[in-house]
Specification:
Blueprint: H1 3-10, H2 16-30, E1 46-52, E2 58-61, E3 64-66, E4 70-75, E5 80-85, H3 91-105, E6 111-114, E7 121-122, E8 125-126, H4 130-137, E9 140-143, H5 153-166, H6 175-190, H7 201-210, E10 224-229, E11 235-238, E12 241-244, E13 253-258, E14 262-267, E15 270-276, E16 284-285, H8 288-302, H9 315-322
Parallel strand pairs: 1-6, 6-9, 12-16
Antiparallel strand pairs: 1-4, 2-3, 4-5, 7-8, 10-13, 11-12, 13-14, 14-15
Length: 332
């Protein structure tokens, strides 16, 4: 109940500020208890996942900067941390980021713990592709209940550690530079002594991995895919950016595949466009070869073709071909 309503109910006529301050002071005494259990983590059981948004604005090209998310995964038993900056918090990028980090680890925890991140799903109703991703890895994606910070306390502390120990004093020139610096720093972070476990994460990760699942023989589907008909201007839009395609595919359906680094466009299994993915928004990316090909096709279309000679065929050829009876009674 707001302090102003309390003041009205008790008929308070004094200073509103004094009343609010004293209500705030005694309010914790009337708050309901919220006990937190002591949680233990078995080897290989779970990795906690979260997104960290560093305040540093990262240059993404074309004079633009963005605040980009960093996917953080921590193995709960060993406290071994993994992290990577990704282009967005959409499902395709989250799955691609998780697969890259797990591939680098070389094993799959039996559970992946998430909060109610939109790209993963809400209230255990998974976003499209998440269930298939977990099925290929033979793991479970578990979303914890709201207002339960203890269930993800390990990764939350890792986010704070990144904020206070990795970020200060650093300058980044691109997302690639950020990931390079982060990859160089993480081994040092995993070599620190953790008081709660009484060991270093780098020392416990081997026992953790032995209890995990093996990587699947076939990689899961990650990133984005789309099938569109190529318009006359031979560009496809993906992630608020336009990418050029070879104009020979105009009017036909092309398949667009996007991962964390590359945009690939194919026609009937043949590549008709490849671009480095742009992490900003509102940019047109053009391959000069596509422009030259469009110029040649346009010139050929606008140049009239000379009319060829008209050849008249003897009608008797058709009579002989179809066995027509002539006037003299003979069959040609």
């Amino acid at each position: 109940m707001p302090a102003t309503v309390l003041a009205e109910r008790v008929g308070w006529s004094g200073s509103p500020a004094w009343f609010r301050e004293n209500v705030a002071r005694i309010r914790p005494e009337y708050a309901p208890a919220d006990p937190a259990d002591r949680i233990t983590y078995d080897p290989g059981d779970q990795a906690q996942c979260d997104l960290w948004f560093p305040e540093a604005r990262i240059p993404v090209g074309a004079g633009k900067t963005r605040v980009l998310p960093v996917l953080v995964m921590v193995s709960s038993h060993s406290r071994f941390s993994m992290a990577r900056m990704i282009p967005s918090r959409m499902t395709g990028d989250l799955l691609a980021g998780m697969w890259e980090l797990l591939g680098g680890l070389g094993a799959v925890p039996r559970r992946l713990i998430w909060d109610n991140e939109t790209g993963i799903g809400r209230r255990n109703s998974y976003a499209a592709g998440v269930a298939a991703f977990a099925g290929v890895l033979a793991t479970r994606v578990v979303q914890v209940k709201p207002y339960d910070p203890e269930s993800k306390g390990v990764v939350e502390r890792a986010n704070q550690f990144l904020e206070t120990s990795f970020l200060p004093g650093r300058v980044f020139t691109s997302p690639e530079d950020f990931n390079t610096q982060l990859a160089m720093w993480l081994p040092k972070a995993n070599a620190r002594f953790v008081r709660r476990t009484g060991a270093r994460p780098a020392e416990l990760i081997n026992a953790d991995k032995k209890a995990m699942l093996a990587l699947p023989p076939v990689p899961p589907v990650t990133g984005f895919t789309a099938r569109v008909r190529l318009p006359r201007d031979y560009y496809v839009r993906m992630g608020s950016n336009d990418y050029s395609v070879h104009p020979q595919a105009i009017g036909r359906f092309v398949d667009v595949t996007v991962d964390l680094e590359t945009v690939t466009i194919s026609l009937d299994g043949r590549t008709v466009g490849t671009h480095t993915r742009y992490w900003g928004k509102g940019i047109t990316i053009t391959d000069p070869d596509h422009v030259d090909a469009a110029k040649a096709l346009r010139k050929a279309f606008q140049t009239p073709q000379p009319a060829g000679e008209t050849v008249l065929r003897d009608l008797a050829d058709y009579d002989r071909a179809f066995g027509v009876v002539l006037d003299d009674g003979q069959v040609a």
